[in-house]
């Protein structure tokens, strides 16, 4: 009986489906907690070409969840150690190990060689890099991420679906969300989440079932609660990434990694001189600000109206609750506009403070 | 007087809010039901920021009835979920 009999006897897969698997090329970013089960199942399933990129080495504390490795792997590069184990599991497929860090310089060329990219990385810089490089090379991205006892899975950039940035437009500040080794993780959790990712990869290759595109699946291992949340696509966000296509290799991590956004309290700004107040809400939004000179540039139009900003003044951005003004401040930072603040308070609180201030 | 009270009560609705990931470190609970009298998502967020000071410093997205929404969306559903990004792998 053949190695793949379990697949071949399924009417949904058969020899035709198994041939599709054998012709598929999948790149797994990271051979850690998520990468190990993903690689293990894709290899066992007979995916013909599998790439794995990881710069890190295997440590004893990895063995609690990184199930491809054993004592003999300690100190070895994870991509190399994974390849050794996977070749023992299935000698009939091609496994490419890249013992290096994924960067803006190598991502595009690497991704071009594969059909599907799987994100098993453990930090936001890499996650946004993987997403952006998938957008630019037009590859589907099978995404998974974990936190303590909880996980998220989604498929991005699939059949013109939303991207990771449509779900989370801006990377969180560095260090604001801790990773597994710092904060701990239930060992079996990446096994569950990584297996879900491998499942999505197989479905995409085989063309069966419903691919988790346009949705994010959330899972809690303690409560067994799970939800599927619908994500809307933002063409604007996707275009902003595609715009940097030609300069991608020159883009440094700063494009992905939010530098600290400066925020300010309205009280402090009211007592300062030389401040330009900018309302980034849509023109119809209420309440209007009374007793203060304000210009209105909705967030969606800000990028095309940078000339309206007064370079001599401090720019103070506000909106309804302080969320869009933060995005606006971030965007101005990317455009190297100096001296910008996002006001902590929303419009109605600002009005109250102005009233108090004028008393 | 009693009718007036009744009217106010009718305008408020009960909303169940679910907190995921790091947000539960701030709220110390995974789910709660609040009486909410506002109209928009941002008003609900302001209510939550008053209750949990440090929530404002966290990144998260808001889902209403299993669909991600923005801060100007009207609250129509009774189930809101706050989903932060996870980095781990």
UniProtKB/TrEMBL annotation, chain A:
It is an enzyme of class 2 (transferase). One of its GO terms (molecular function) is ubiquitin-like modifier activating enzyme activity. The keyword Nucleotide-binding applies. It comes from the Bacteria. Its EC number is 2.7.7.80. It catalyses: [molybdopterin-synthase sulfur-carrier protein]-C-terminal Gly-Gly + ATP + H(+) = [molybdopterin-synthase sulfur-carrier protein]-C-terminal Gly-Gly-AMP + diphosphate. One of its GO terms (cellular component) is cytosol. Keywords: ATP-binding, Nucleotide-binding, Nucleotidyltransferase, Transferase. Homodimer. Forms a stable heterotetrameric complex of 2 MoeB and 2 MoaD during adenylation of MoaD. Catalyzes the adenylation by ATP of the carboxyl group of the C-terminal glycine of sulfur carrier protein MoaD. This is Molybdopterin-synthase adenylyltransferase.
TrEMBL record, chain B:
Transmembrane segments: none annotated. CDD domains: Ubl_MoaD. It holds the Pfam family ThiS. It comes from the Bacteria. Coiled coil: none annotated. InterPro entries: Beta-grasp_dom_sf, Mopterin_synth/thiamin_S_b, ThiS/MoaD-like. This is Molybdopterin synthase subunit MoaD.
